[in-house]
Protein: Protease
Amino acid sequence: MKVLIISANRFEDSELLVPYYRLREEGITVDIASLTKGFIKGKHDYEIEANIAIADVRPEQYSALVLPGGKAPAALRENKQVLDAVRAFFKAGKPVSAICHGPQILISAGVLQGRTATCYKSVAEELKAAGIDYQDVEVVVDGNLVTSRQPSDLPAFMRETMKKIRSR
Amino acid sequence: MKVLIISANRFEDSELLVPYYRLREEGITVDIASLTKGFIKGKHDYEIEANIAIADVRPEQYSALVLPGGKAPAALRENKQVLDAVRAFFKAGKPVSAICHGPQILISAGVLQGRTATCYKSVAEELKAAGIDYQDVEVVVDGNLVTSRQPSDLPAFMRETMKKIRSR
Structure:
């Protein structure tokens, strides 16, 4: 099984590293895609290699998608290839997990209509303005979609993400 | 179930946060002990609250011990209460998982005689000098003891740590 993480520079380090290591603990192959291939750096100065450029991502090869937060989503949401990849996961009904600022990408991809979700507190108003039923709780599961607010929600975020992935 | 993490300032952030969130994903209560109660700061500037002072730790209340790395073990290994707590876990045969510089604490506690273990590369010579069978692999499991070398070993480290904890 392969899972895709899409991120970029200024990612929230724990929100990328915790899912990355957790998925690999389970024996899952994890690809990290970014705007270009190569090392990306987190807000806390962790560096990790994006082993694939978003232009080369084939969503059909992956079982699930994880979108960490930080400042990365602000850049990613402007990229058509990122949004097309996200839409492909939704269209196929595959698990998509987004935390913190990660849901900004989902707003831009236009995949949240009629959905219940959560996100970082500073993103909440934007989420509501997009017509989404925002819940201020540690994790919201709505069909294929798992969302959380912040790093301290990572235990609940990963618990629900792993359930979704195991069920496939 | 309760698990204890012992750490201090200048901890290796991912080596504390990944086990902390992983254990809590499993519904396990995690106490973080340090030299004094209060916030401790990692090398990458993450702050986390040590909710108990080492002087107040009662090892009999915990099912397992995790020792993250970074610069924290250099300070912790000088503290008698830390070493006494570590010895109590070994005496009771409870799982002890140490990564990176974490095994330095085990050397000072004198609990590694005749053991096979691994650690961060810069600690390897010290481990060998203490008579331990050092292995340069991502994880070594020897009885109750689980050791790993570095952050990139966290998937294997947590896989084996969770096996040990689940078996109790």
Notes: Chain A touches chain B at residues 13-14, 17-18, 21-22, 24-25, 44-46, 151, 154-156, 158-159, 162 (CB under 8 Å). The mean pLDDT of chain A is 98.
